[in-house]
Amino acid sequence: MATLPDLVSTDVAELTAAVCDVASVSGEEGTLADAIEAALAAHGHLEVLRDGDTVVARTRLGRDRRVVVAGHIDTVPVKDNLPTWRRTTADGTEELWGRGAVDMKGGVAVALHLAAALTAPRWDVTWVFYDHEEVEADLNGLGRLVRVHPDWVRGDLAVLGEPTAGGIEGGCNGTLRAEVRTTGRTAHSARAWRGENAIHKAAEVLARLSAYEAGEVEVDGLVYRESLGAVAVRGGIAMNMVPDECVVTVNYRFAPSRSTAGAEAHVREVFDGFDVTVTDLAGGARPGLDDPLVTGFVAAVTAVTGGVPGPKYGWTDVARFAELGVPAVNFGPGDPMLAHADDERVPVDQVRTCAAALRAWLAGEAPERGD
Amino acid sequence: MATLPDLVSTDVAELTAAVCDVASVSGEEGTLADAIEAALAAHGHLEVLRDGDTVVARTRLGRDRRVVVAGHIDTVPVKDNLPTWRRTTADGTEELWGRGAVDMKGGVAVALHLAAALTAPRWDVTWVFYDHEEVEADLNGLGRLVRVHPDWVRGDLAVLGEPTAGGIEGGCNGTLRAEVRTTGRTAHSARAWRGENAIHKAAEVLARLSAYEAGEVEVDGLVYRESLGAVAVRGGIAMNMVPDECVVTVNYRFAPSRSTAGAEAHVREVFDGFDVTVTDLAGGARPGLDDPLVTGFVAAVTAVTGGVPGPKYGWTDVARFAELGVPAVNFGPGDPMLAHADDERVPVDQVRTCAAALRAWLAGEAPERGD
Q1: pLDDT band at residue A96 using 50, 70 and 90 as cut-offs
Q2: Is A45 in the same domain as A161?
């Protein structure tokens, strides 16, 4: 049983370290979820709900609008990078290093802190801390809530605390996964000429991937960069057998202006002549920066951070809200380029600035730097 | 506890079926080894020895020469092909179908029958029935005997009952396994351009394999066909990560005139520029058909079978004897092209002919067809 420090009085950067130090690789979020549930339950202005390893806390102030602030509590596997540690760079920036520092326990800590601290926010707020974001889409805790408890995630605007380096990122690319399969005929490898080697046939699949040039697509004023690459390859039966199957799994990230059908057609065209099976396909979300609710959020936050909105490359759960017709943006501490990297780290001041900006918007008060 | 039928009076094809029907996948040879030990112990002219699941039976007649007849009792996994069944082909050939029929319980049955039947062979004979041939080389039962009981396998000529379709196959190709590794830099696949895809780099490895043209090499009058191919490929960390490593495992089968160092140098040359790790390397064995002992064996056997010696492609334990300086050949029933195939089957007359030919040589008597 892990315990989190006091959510209100603890510095939010320190709170980030504490949240990171309770390891929560996808599928093993139980301990952290318990700690979050216990910490939030101590605050009487919140109704705390639980489903699996997802914890939801919400105010019931009768405001006419409700904001959803959501973040996933799982991480990719730990790679000798926990517990967290602090380092000061040559230019004096203090950083927090370790698994989850970027993706996305900084955002989780900001939400935990504000959930506890803001007893009377300007709008009703639903705080969502969910499981299984870093794995197959059908395990996603937010997706589960949408199916099982849709009222827990309803709102007029959603903010996802995914890493944006404190900037506002609108929309997101779509994502498609497909298996490109080659087949052959097995034989004992001592008489390899009797078989047909499926792995050798995959040479052309890899050659096309290697030569592929990804596009850049402008949507609602933001430029989305696409990509197509292998994420896995497997083939082989035994060390003395000619393999009769080889599967290259590819991941295509496509601009939100492209439909899912269009994305699939493109991948099938790239691998024309090969057996292609789409295993996972989720459309992107347009930036939505013309929505008045989003505009208000952008104005309040950029007043603190000084930034301008940009595109989100990664597919995020913003797209789940987009599907429900809820405008949604990404806003959180941490350089998204460092997400999943073994050396992920976040400048501690960035965590504090994000907390201050979000507080400014939710509380409608003038924040102090270093909140 | 399984029991084998009487080794002397039972038709050797029927005995093959009985030996097959006691399943003995590598690592699970105990039941069959027990049955073999019990069956041989009933014959007073044999000294029966046991080590693990290897059974050795030998005559001690004081002859001036000793022959070793050896065969492995394990098989690759059963694939819905036991118990055995008989089928007669359109051209009237009676076949025994099932796991082990080819590799190599026909040879085992021939040896069991002659071990029991030949109470006074022309030379002393050591009959070796060993375990763990179909798996990693360091588990091999014959290799274990060489280390632990070298006197059990000493002799002037060794005959391995591996499937040769009743022909004599001299020597064997060598085998080398190597991992060809490409490395890159991981990143989230949503921002693939930040990483370096190791799987894409393997395109060139597969292209070289695909274009590779294997040689044919003449050694002591026999032509050995070589091959080089992938037996496995693996790469990928997670479905949303740019992979930082890809490993292609290749298997090179090389003529016995090539040294192990020469084989390794060749593979390194083919994959020049890539990281190559040799994981398994065993030299071949020259045919040795100029050795007088082998010549005598060839003459006696081909007088019965009518065949001519050919090369052995697969690496077999002939090479273990070659290392000890003991000339060795492969001779046994069953089409080697069907070894490990789910539809392996042996013409029953071929089993009988092999028994007759081996008997002719060992007994120095005129055999009858259908012995």
Answers
A1: very high
A2: yes
B10: which DSSP letter? S
Distance CA A220, CA B286 (A): 73
Q: Which residues of A touch B330 (CB under 8 A)?
A: none
CB contact under 8 A, B231 and A253: no
For residue B371, pLDDT beyond 50:
no
* Domain coverage including residue A241: 174-282
Tell which of A188, A194, A315, A318 to mutate to test the B interface (max B CBs under 10 Å). Answer: A188
How does residue A260 score in pLDDT terms, banded at 50, 70 and 90? very high
Q: Could you tell me the CATH number of the domain that includes residue A273?
A: 3.30.70.360
CB-based contact A249 B233, cutoff 8 Å? no
- Is A368 part of a structural domain of the chain? no
Chain B interface mutation, best of A240, A244, A252, A274, highest count of B Cβ atoms under 10 Å: A240
Between CA B97 and CA B334 the distance in angstroms is 11
Q: What is the pLDDT of residues A205-248, one digit of tens each?
A: 999 999 999 999 988 778 999 999 999 999 998 888 999 999 99
Across B325-348, average pLDDT? 92
Q: Are the Cβ atoms of A199 and B243 closer than 8 angstroms?
A: no
Report pLDDT for B220: 81
Whether residues B52 and B194 share a domain: the answer is: no
**Ramachandran bin of B215, using left for φ above 0, alpha for ψ from -120 to 50, beta for the remaining angles:** beta
Given B207, B229, B314, which is nearest A197 (Cβ)?
Answer: B229
- The reported pLDDT for the residue numbered B366 is 42
Cβ pairs bridging A and B (under 8 Å): 185
Q: How far is B63 from chain A (nearest CA, A)?
A: 38
pLDDT at site B369: 39
Which residues of B are designated catalytic? 74, 133
User: Hey, are the CB atoms on A214 and B193 less than 8 Å from each other?
Assistant: yes
B61-93, pLDDT tens digit by residue?
999 899 999 999 999 999 999 999 999 999 999
A166-177 confidence digits (pLDDT tens): 999 888 899 999
A95 close to A106: Cβ distance less than 8 angstroms: no
| Residue for token pair 């006091």 | A6
Poorest-pLDDT segment among A45-59, B138-152, B177-191, B279-293: B279-293
User: Looking at this predicted complex, what is its ipTM?
Assistant: 0.74
Choose the final residue of a domain: A282, A317, A342. A282
- Residues sharing a CB contact under 8 Å with residue B65, sequence separation 6 or more, in sequence order: B123, B124, B155, B156, B157, B293
B211, closest residue in chain A (CA to CA): A200
- SS3 track for A99-141: CCCCCCHHHHHHHHHHHHHCCCCCCEEEEEEECCCCCCHHHCH
Q: Please tell me whether residues B238 and B90 are part of one structural domain.
A: no
pLDDT at B125 > cutoff 90: yes
Number of domains in chain A: 2
Last-in-domain residue among A236, A262, A282: A282
Same domain flag for A148 and A222: no
CATH code for position A139: 3.40.630.10
Contact A191 B251 (CB under 8 A): no
Contact B343, B97 (CB under 8 A): yes
Task: Verify whether the Cβ–Cβ distance A241 to B189 is below 8 Å.
Answer: no
In a domain, A354, yes or no: yes
**Interchain CB contact of B194 with A (< 8 Å):** yes
Instruction: Give the separation between CA B152 and CA B154, rounded to whole angstroms.
Output: 6
Residue B82 shares a structural domain with residue B158: yes
Alpha helices in A173-231 (DSSP H): 198-201, 203-211
By C-alpha distance, which of B66, B27, B77 is closest to B342?
A: B77
Query: Is the same domain home to B217 and B260?
Result: yes
Q: What is the pLDDT of residues A298-307, one digit of tens each?
A: 899 999 988 8
Residue A368 confidence (pLDDT) above 70: no
Give catalytic residue positions of A. 74, 133
Candidates A172, A227, A245, A278: best to mutate against B (most CBs of B within 10 A) is A227
One domain, residues A144 and A187: no
